[in-house]
Amino acid sequence: MNDVSYYNVSREVFPPVRELDFSKDCEVFGEWVATVVAPDPWDARFQQGGAVSVVWRFMMSALDDEWRHPHGPDLAPLQFYNQLSQWYFEQWYWRIVRRIDNDTLEYETNPDFVLAAWDVPQSRCPEQYCKAIAQTGNTDISGIGEAVMADTPRQIHTAYYVEAVLATMYLVAFTVWRLREHLRKRASRRGGGGGGDGHQKHRRPLTGPNSGWAGRILDAFRATVSSFLSMAMLLSLVMLIAAIKTAAQKSQIRRIPELSRDVPNGSALYDISLSLLASTFSVFPVMLIYALMRHTGGGKEEGHRQWMSRAVLALLWALGVAEMYLAPRGELDYDYRHSGVGQFDCDVRGGQRHWRGIKAGQWMVVGAPLLWVALAAFVVTGFGIPGVADYAWVRRWRAAWRLAVAWLNLLLMWGVLAYFTYLRHSITATAGGDRGADQSGRWLFGQILALSTWAPTVAEWFYVLFFGMKEAWSTKMPEGYEAVRRRDNNDGPGSSGGGTPGAADMESESKYDAAMGAYYYGSSSSSNSRRESDQQQLLHGAAGPAVIAVGSSSPMVPEPQAAVGSVPPPYQTPMVTWDAATNSWKAVSDDSRAASATWQHPDGVPSNWQHQSPQQQQQQQQGQNRREGTPWDQWESTGW
Fold first, then answer.
1. With a threshold of 0.85, does the pTM exceed it?
2. Fewest C-beta atoms under 10 Å: which of 238, 239, 392, 499?
3. Same domain, yes or no: 478 and 569
4. Is 575 helix (H, G, I), strand (E, B) or coil?
5. Is residue 2 part of a domain?
6. Which UniProt keywords apply (predicted)?
7. 155 and 125 in one domain?
8. Which residues pair with 47 in a beta bridge?
């Protein structure tokens, strides 16, 4: 034993490897595996195969005490470590398999060494083994590039929750607002315009400067919902594009044997799963907020914005379908998806459940949006079949349709985010937690940077809350424009399009330059087609306020207050004038067959009326009468 030979070291100095126990020290085993599977920093196609100092400790951990100390003269320790290294490399580079190029050879490892040093310790030290191969989260896809959001999914994980919480808050606020509007309108209709004595208690408006803190909070949500939707659309669009790019790259790598590894390193195993979940999650906040936005009753400019939003939604749907069908082909084990046997160690995706979930997701991504479009078309138009859209049950569904869609998207959004969180936690725990390769529990630079994505929306929300919607909108408008409140008869739960103003309409300051006189408040879309129920709703149920910008030179007339009487039926169209003597608004019937009578409305003048002079109103009505053949006095008594 003292005469040490440098040839056939494994047979003359050390015992056969199949007789050794390499699982005595699991920590050393895990450290050795980590250095073996780590990619070569010079050429990522290859693995390092181990570090010399770690190899010494790993090989010595399997030896008994009598083998750990060299026998011989003083120089024996150096000779011993040389022999130890030679013994290891004899096992690791057992024989040449093939020549890759002039300078690179592919070797096969001794099967006995693989069994004793890898397979057996792997089953006895599973925690250290999984930590060593470091199957971590993706380092690029969720970040969508350095310019948008950090560089790891853990760093934007918090941003996902911020987006989900904000979307939930918007939905709750809009649900409360619309339910309050609906209950107020129903109470007004049941009250018959003021109860038995013809008078009705004045209610504080739901929103606006005089609505209290509850109204200010609602105004803050309504004023910022458009910017939140724009940011959510941008985020979803970029994430889907990044996910598709990653899936295409992984699909190409999977088909090239030279680029594949028996033990995937880093995030390779979970790249596709995390990118698919992250990009899918990003779509649901967009659908949720879009369902709350107003989509009817706007002008030409608002119609352009609506079609732009619809175009973005169609693009998101197309990208989502492409990602859902392309992503599975980028999975490393895609060719073995029907085998029923897991191909990789420490895989937390769930085996066959993972593939069944992808198949269900493909059907959902394609079918659910198409079903939504079909149902929406039926609820709003009745597919063009005469009378179907006016059925009572269809009208009830129309009133709650958008809120129902929004709440369904909320459940799906939180479900996907919950599974994403579960998967991330499982990956982190398997990779050794915060002390391992995955640092998801630490607040890094990118994680803090990710929170800035939603900072503008949150800042705008607080600005509207403390300073009001008028000032918030006025600061965004060019010189010569000012934001003032108006009422919108389509702004409520009963409207087909919902009631959420997404932006301000603007009129030039040259409008209403005439001298102030008596102002008539009449319907902005007067016609004879409205039903009696609609008349009662307009007279006795105030709709929610919206925002409109008009010229700063418009006459500063105080808002009409709830007046002092009731217009007897069938006279539903009053004349509203400013009484300088009493310094208040007065409303009287303008019908020649009725005596002048004041009237009352719980929130002042009906919500869909806008002021015009009597001369302007008369000219407009005479033109309409000529077109429709309706006598002036008949139109006035029957309403709109």
1. no
2. 392
3. yes
4. strand
5. no
6. Membrane, Transmembrane, Transmembrane helix
7. no
8. 39
